[in-house]
Design brief:
Low-confidence stretches: 1-7, 89-99, 103-110
Distance between the termini: 49 Å
Helix content: 25-40%
Oligomer: single chain
Radius of gyration: 21 Å
Amino acid sequence: MSDELALKRGLTREVVEELSREKGEPRWMLEHRLRSLEVFQKLPMPRFGPDLSGIDLGEVAYYARTVPTVTSWEELPEDIRKTFEALGLPEAEQRALAGLGAQVDSEVVYRSILEEVRAQGVIFLPMEEAVREHPELVREHFMRVIPPEDNKFAALHGAVWSGGTFVWVPEGVEVAIPLQAYFRMQTQGVGQFEHTLIVAEPGSSVHYIEGCSAPRYTKAALHSGMVEIVAKEGAHVRFTTIQNWSRNVYNLNNKRAVAQAEAQVDWVSGSLGSKVTMLYPTTVLAGPGAKTENLGFTLAGDGQWLDLGARALHLAPHTSSRLVSRSVVQGQGKVVFRGKVYVAPQARGAKGHVECSTLLLSPQAQTETIPTLEARTDEVELAHEATVGRISKDHLFYLMSRGLSEQEAMSLIVNGFVSPILKEIPLEYALELKRLLEMSFEGAMG
């Protein structure tokens, strides 16, 4: 990729064409990008949620390749390697994670996969490689779950996506150990638009874990990735994500899954960073007996507006969904939870449950819960519950009387509050989340 394109700001047809040409893409992908660009130019910005005026889409650089692709950790530049090592990625790989991809800015720079997983016929590739090596398989599914017309940022993503991962699991294959990817925004003013596509054939199962982070710069940064999941008959896909963006990132993601008959899709997420986040993972329960569970944990502090939620769309009989959120808000932070369950007329016997609990750590902290339960049939069970509370002074006093500092006491209470989510997150990520929580509590009561 030329430096000229990497540094050029703004989005034009010429930028999209050169991006596609430099990646050596087939004609159909270029046509998809150009159609997405046209849709992007026509669609309005979101008319709800946080203020997005701080991000100037005309000033974003839509591609940056800053680190060459390598095949071993030792080949990575020292500063990047130290960053990854501090996050425990090599250690996690040594613990036999089935595959690992690491992306810096717009490109995947490192990927590995265990031989036994490859021997099962599993495809785990950077998205660009998959487009070239498995074009028909990718074309069948790429942006079919989330089309460009869905919203402005889906269309933007369709025009400029770069990097990400393609996972295909053959029929009946169980991937026993998680696949893992890590995304880091390294360059100021560059957008990141990785595309993750997971296709689980009938009766297969896979667990995919992604982590995200960015250093802080003075200029606002944009992250607009996309995750599409296709879980075919009887398949089980679990998607875990830990996002710890810096406080100047606008995190505007699209994530959606389609679950066919008797399939199950589970989402587990932890969101701690960014200036603004808008993210609503959705499962379309398209086949009889399909299931989904969405467990989310959110921590917001000063200057943050995290607008998150989950959606379950029941389109078939005897489907079930469970959407659970735990939020902690401190300083002048704000968290909004949007939970939606829709039951179509033909989805008789569907069951849906939405649960949202928020813990406020300061008088200025704000939270909103916006549930939507819409049933087009009477043969359905839907429930919603929401709670908002503050840390009890009596509880703090009791714990401090046993020798804990105020920060330690607060950490203990909050960890107990979010434990239903933490226990579903792989150990190394749960420990990292707990450390990040403890660091954020200092001064929260002030």
